[in-house]
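Re: that backbone. Tokens:
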């Protein structure tokens, strides 16, 4: 069997692009010095996209991308390439069930409270710091 490896196209995102995207989503969800203009649901989604950007940055740097985009998949991707604090992993995963929107059979959405958003924000910020140290 002959396996052909196809290189990424030259315009494919690299770890710095993923990091920049993660930072932008984080800044949109958590503007400095002012209250966010977005609803809690939208801030949850912005934080989720920020988390995905940060994990993609770290994973891309190490050449091992996530299998999917659920919080569980993202944390498993991190564990493949860096030592991940189990407390930080648990902090992220406890918010995964706020929106289970990937499965048709088990579709579920609830509305995150401010305490949950603050906890998720702190976890995403910590992963963002890891991504920043990794990709610079």
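Recovered sequence:
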């Amino acid at each position: 069997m002959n396996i052909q490896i196809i290189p990424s196209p030259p315009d494919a995102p690299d770890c710095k692009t993923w990091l920049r995207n993660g930072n932008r989503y984080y800044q949109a969800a958590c503007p400095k010095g002012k209250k966010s203009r977005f609803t809690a649901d939208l801030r949850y989604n912005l934080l989720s996209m920020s988390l995905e950007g940060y994990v993609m940055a770290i994973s891309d740097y190490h050449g091992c991308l996530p299998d999917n985009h659920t919080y569980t998949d993202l944390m498993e991707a991190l564990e493949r390439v860096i030592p991940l604090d189990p407390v930080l992993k648990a902090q992220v995963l406890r918010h995964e069930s706020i929106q289970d929107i990937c499965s048709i059979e088990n579709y579920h959405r609830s509305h995150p409270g401010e305490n949950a958003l603050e906890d998720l924000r702190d976890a995403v910020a910590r992963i963002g710091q890891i991504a920043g140290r990794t990709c610079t």
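The first helix runs from residue 15 to 29. The two ends are 39 Å apart (CA to CA).
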